[in-house]
Amino acid sequence: MTPFEKYLHIIITQGGYEAEKDRSATVEAHHLLLAMADYASGTAHRLLAEAGLSRQAVREALDREFEHSLNAVGVSAAAYTLPRPSGTPKTSGMGASGKLVLERTFASARKKDLDSAHVLQGILLAQAGTVPRALALAGVDREALLARVHEAIAALDA
Question: Which of these, 158, 128, 156, lies nearest to 3 by C-alpha position?
Fold first, then answer.
């Protein structure tokens, strides 16, 4: 198993734990982002830390996105005590946004050249969805972060 394969296994496994904590049936892009911010190894973790995106900061951004989404449909999380999500069976695999992250990752470079930065790039390339909304609400310049990811990938290729 290559170092990247070990990294990806850890991130997917940790993403599964994040999904279970959220009581989500599938692992989505935001679960992978939480896992990457939490796993203190690799280029992606360094880039996230430089952008101020610790695991706690990502969690807070996702919570703000959730509240914002509720407000968009006229529900105030502050006005109600929302019930915890109902129990779900063990996470069954990758959800749509998680699969897209992996597709983007593997399409971006040859397997032997992949790095954690490629996974982060796969997450940041999403134009719509939970992660772009959460980052925007947190004041993160996604395009600037993506540019730093591209620079890091170019440096790895050199």
Answer: 156
Sign of torsion over alpha carbons 106, 110, 32, 70: negative
> What's the CA gap between 40 and 30, in Å, rounded?
17
The string of pLDDT tens digits covering residues 49-80 is 999 999 999 999 999 998 887 777 777 667 66
pTM: 0.90
The CA distance from 32 to 16, in Å, is 8
Tokens of 113: 């050249």
Q: State pLDDT tens for residues 129-138.
A: 999 999 999 9
Rounded Cα distance between 130 and 134, Å, is 6
Cα separation, 10 vs 105, in Å, equals: 16
